[in-house]
């Protein structure tokens, strides 16, 4: 029987970003939950999200961007799951310098999280949405993002303690402006792909995920 794929979208996104994927098995999108408080710890949040993943099920956890952090945190609690990161971080030390500066100065607390949807062309540049279809999807996702959730998620990202997270397979675009790849190890680097590659490079990602799931000969 084919393993189930549990898909966790990026901050504020939903199942729309996965529409281009073709996976070798059933796929379940883990929808975002409302934080129980502005300071709910990421691990506590992940434990609530993990309730949708059976303890005894061998499966795949695929996290995109901020969803990658959740995939790793759920992976702590589900030992039979294999984690795949798309446009995400495998370790808190991989935060880019700009975000580390935001954490150190606490300036992220002043960010008007409702502003980005009003600057869609700037967002398009950061995310690497390449054409009209991708741009329109990104604009809708930004419009639908809850600023309260975005503020909580940003705080969790900047203060994430990744100690002891499971190993993950990392897929990352070489032109990711939001989370630049830097010098951190990447298992599959997609030349020219940006942060929105879950949409823009869905066919390539589908092929790579299919290869990961293929049984290896002994």
General description of the model:
The protein has a single domain, classed as Rossmann fold. Helices cover 36% and strands 13% of the residues. The radius of gyration is 16 Å and the shape is globular. With 218 residues, the chain is an alpha/beta fold.
Task: Pick out its properties.
single chain; 218 residues; alpha/beta; Rossmann fold; six-stranded parallel sheet; 36% helix; 13% strand; globular
**Which CATH first-tier class would you pick?**
Alpha Beta
Quaternary structure of the protein: single chain
Q: What order do the SSEs take from the amino end to the carboxyl end, as H and E?
A: EEHEHEHHHHEEHH
Number of helices: 8
Structural class: alpha/beta
Poorly predicted ranges: none
How many strand segments? 6
Radius of gyration: 16 Å
What's the structural domain tally?
Answer: 1
Whole-number average pLDDT?
89
Short description:
The chain has 218 residues and is an alpha/beta fold.
Secondary-structure blueprint of this entry?
Blueprint: E1 4-8, E2 27-29, H1 42-49, E3 59-64, H2 66-77, E4 81-86, H3 97-105, H4 120-127, H5 132-144, H6 147-158, E5 168-173, E6 188-190, H7 197-200, H8 202-213
Parallel strand pairs: 1-2, 1-3, 3-4, 4-5, 5-6
